[in-house]
Amino acid sequence: MPLCVPGESVAIFYLGIFVVSLLLSFVLTKYVRDIANRRGWTVAPLSDRHLHVRPIPRIGGVAIVLAFLVSLAIVLSIGRLYPAFAFETSRKAIWPILVPGFLIFLLGVYDDAFPVSPYVKFVGQAAAGALLYVFGLRILDLPVLFGHHKFPHLLSLPFTILWVLAITNAFNLIDGLDGLAAGAALFSTLVVFVVSLFSHAPWVALMALALSGSILGFLRYNFNPATIFLGDCGSLFIGFMLSALALQGAQKAPTTIAVAIPVVSFGLPIVETAVSILRRLIAGRPIFTGDREHIHHKLLERGLSHRQVVIVLYAVSAIFALLSLFLLWPTGSTLGLVLAVLGTGIWFGVQRLGYLEFGELRRVARRTMDQPQIFVNNLAIRRATEELKVTRDYEQLCSVLTAAFNNNDFDGFDLFWSLPKSEWREMRVGPLAANVEPLSTMKWKRSGPEFADTSGPSWNLNLDLVTRNHRKQGTFTLHRHYSETTLQVDVNLITGAFQVALAEALERLLYKADSKVPAASEGSFMAPQAAGSH
User: Fold this and answer.
1) Residues 6+ apart with CB under 8 A from 109
2) Segment 298-317, tens digit of pLDDT
3) Which listed residue, of 10, 349, 387, 525, carries a Cα 20 to 30 Å from 493's Cα?
4) Which helix (H) or strand (E) holds 207?
5) Structure pTM?
């Protein structure tokens, strides 16, 4: 229920809790840091993913949690001393979040001291999500996707656990630069505070303010150059608390506010998580494998300093937070505008970061769009392969090869054939005189002014023409100028059956007594057919 005091007193009360949590965190963080340094509870840079250069404590989450809990204890004490500031539902609101939240904190502390596998952490987080569900904090519907239909328990429970897992690990994943995860969480926590005010959930607002102050006080020591890190105990706790507070605030909020605003306000960690999972799946790497391909690593590679990267990502977090607040007045046009801005911004940002995996995905998409032309070009190679099997003279051979490559992506070819010296005497009659070395060439290039200059940069595909009896008959070289367009033909067709058919056609022509084409009425000639054009 609302506070039974004037509005000005409520604002002062909120401000006081924020200031108290900030000061507590400021003092406790320094205290925790100094104890950790004296006792050697520090972490040295152990891999190339670690960007710090000296041992630093990574139990900053302890100070945040202590400041947060003490602030809430002060709130409860004030409520007992001054009933006007009490909440009838305070205990019902706090324990369903604090109990699983404290379990997540203990899991993080244990992981900081004795690293555990991601699967163990997932099990612990799933258990905490199940506790939220048991305590009544659950996802009951997703109207944006499924309309206004209430989920049965078999769907509501996994959706709730999935939400907790996604947000908790999203904030843990971006904890790679000094102050990044804490700063991004600060913007998201302030959004939760504003939304809770609009939703008339004062206890959620107080918890969000206490968490915001605790994070801001910690940032004094965590911003670059950091003297203490969040650690898993901090990043997991913050992520879980934000997921739980969003669920708590959703109990009284309109559906659009309850679902859309948290997702948008947590935009940076959600995008980072989605991009990391997608690129690892595309690359065929395990999802839980660490690397130096995160968003902040990409920005560092572009020449930004450590501090500049953090400030840029703070700005991104602020934009996500601001856009989420537009949804406090949900209309069809507002939601559409926010989604359009977000989609455009995310697409542009990912493009600028230059991920190789997404570049490969674009290449595959373009090749899929070009598939009709690939079919045409492949059929031209297959048709030429069949025609080569009945080719009877060199004129027909030239016609078949020209028809095969005239309309695809190659710009020319050279056919070179020869007869081994040991077999010269076996040759009876042919296109070559008996007293000269039996070898010859056939050259073709695409017509047009853009193909007139043959000295430009190009690449070649050289094929040794070998029959099924392992007799080499010559070589066949395809030329193509360098181009940004992809090759729209399956090279395997050329290096496979086509290569063998061409070799055997040359062997047949070299050993035949008469190289003239028989009459068409005899049915032994398959006229070459031109391939379809682009």
Assistant:
1) 59, 61, 62, 231, 232, 233
2) 998 888 998 999 999 999 99
3) 525
4) helix 202-222
5) 0.75
Phi-psi region of 474 (alpha: psi -120 to 50; beta: other; left: phi over 0): left
Report angle CA 162, 168, 173 to the nearest 5 degrees: 115
Half-sphere exposure of 127 (CA within 13 A, CB side): 12
pLDDT digits (tens, 9 = 90+) for 36-57: 999 988 887 765 555 656 788 9
How confident is the model over 435-444, as a mean pLDDT? 63
Number of Cβ within a 10 Å radius of residue 315: 11
Quote the distance between the C-alpha of residue 449 and its chain's center: 43
Q: Assign residue 231 a region: left if phi > 0, alpha if psi is -120 to 50, beta otherwise?
A: left
- Whole-angstrom distance, CA of residue 225 vs CA of residue 51: 11
Return the percentage of the chain with pLDDT > 70, whole number: 81
Name the amino acid, one letter, at 21.
Answer: S
pLDDT band at 152 (very low <50, low <70, confident <90, very high): confident
How many angstroms separate the CA atoms of 97 and 134, rounded? Answer: 11
The string of DSSP codes covering 10-61 is HHHHHHHHHHHHHHHHHHHHHHHHHHHHHHT-EE---STT---SS-EE--HH
Q: Show the tokens assigned to 10.
A: 């409520």
d(CA 22, CA 212): 8
The Cα 171–Cα 221 span in angstroms is: 19
At residue 460, the 3 state secondary structure works out as: strand
With residues binned 3-state (H G I as helix, E B as strand, rest as coil), the percentages for the chain, rounded to 5, are: 65, 5, 30
Kindly give the interhelix angle for 255-265 and 306-326, rounded to the nearest 10 degrees. 170
Closest CA to 415 of 502, 355, 501: 502
Please give the DSSP secondary-structure letter assigned to residue 425.
G
pLDDT in tens, 347-382: 898 888 888 878 777 777 776 776 788 888 889 999
pLDDT over 50 (residue 433): no
pLDDT beyond 60 at 440: yes
pLDDT at residue 230, as a whole number: 93
Give the pLDDT band (50/70/90) at residue 406: confident
For residues 104 and 236, the answer to whether their CB atoms sit within 8 Å is yes
Give helix 231-249 / helix 118-134 axis angle, nearest 10°: 30
Q: Which of 347, 323, 349, 348 is nearest to 336 (CA)?
A: 323
What's the chain's average pLDDT?
81
